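2.7 Reproducibility. Because tokenized structures are sensitive to small changes in the input, we list the exact sequence used for Exopolygalacturonase, including any N-terminal residues retained from the expression construct. No trimming or masking was applied before prediction.
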Amino acid sequence: MPAGPLDIAQLGAKGDGKSDSTPMILKAWKNACDATGVQKIVIPPGNYLTGGLELKGPCKSSIIIRLDGNLLGTGDLNAYKRNWIEIENVDNLSINGHGTIDGQGSLVWNKNDCQHSYNCKVLPNSLVLDFVTNAQIRGITLANSKFFHLNIFASKNVLIDKVTVKAPGNSPNTDGIHMGDSENVTISGTTIGVGDDCISIGPGSKTIRIDGVKCGPGHGISVGSLGRYKDEKDVEDVKVKGCTLVGTTNGLRIKSYEDSKSSPKVTKFVYEDVTMDNVSYPIIIDQKYCPNNICVRSGASKVAVTDVVFKNIHGTSNTPEAITLNCADNLPCQGVQLHNVDIKYNKSNNKTMAVCKNAVGKSFGLSKELACI
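Resulting structure tokens (single pass, no recycling of outputs):
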């Protein structure tokens, strides 16, 4: 038995949207973490305002967080050390329910200057998994994060299923799900509409499965940016299947810095059965990414891109460039395959086109204007 209640209302939390529920949630976590067996923390119906929640392990128990109410992140940035809800060093975690983790980002988005400066002060991410093994997140909604909605770091065996992630399309840096240095991450049946990447896959990501995801608004499903920092690890074995992208600025994108500081490999990718609906740039590999002019334009890439398959990708593009393969002069992309890619520019005054530089591979079942390799 736990040392005390696991229902935060029994611990004194008030679901009035005004009272601070931070101490009650931390107490429920401690009670559950110190117990053994399977322990269930309950967030009952109501609106519970909190500041930073550092939920640390290791725990003796397996923990379920049942989210029936809504958690609201305070707009007072002094209430956070780093992130909002940060779960660290925990094995066997489940978060489920029909409630919402609402970052109330609109209170502080005007304090985000990361669009203009790469040395900006980063606002708190909403939900962070650090060094977590065997986690399931099901059914909940993540909304209006101050920065990223869900950030998965150095974790293994993570399932995100039937989750909704939503923020306005113009909200800054509100990535839906970001991951890095993590292995065996599955995202299925999830709907994401945000102001940045719906899903972003960072260095060190391995065995990633994305299936049945609907994305839009947002910047698409992105890998990278890679090569910005020293000692970045490879990204490999990524499969994206049965997804739909609606009105996004990018579709399926791999991007790395032009004068990369490290040499991670990008390899063993399959994008299959993906529908594009009015997507600005549906397929992109960009080894010359250089935002805010922070890199040397003539710099040589060290990020090798190999064995990337685009298969059964169809729909409409909002610009003439349906396919952009902008690979490095010194390190061409190798083993790129385009199978049955049928994307049409949805305006009548221009033809669909593909722009390919330094890409080596094969095209099957494409119209002449798209078969650029």
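The first strand starts at residue 16 and ends at 20.
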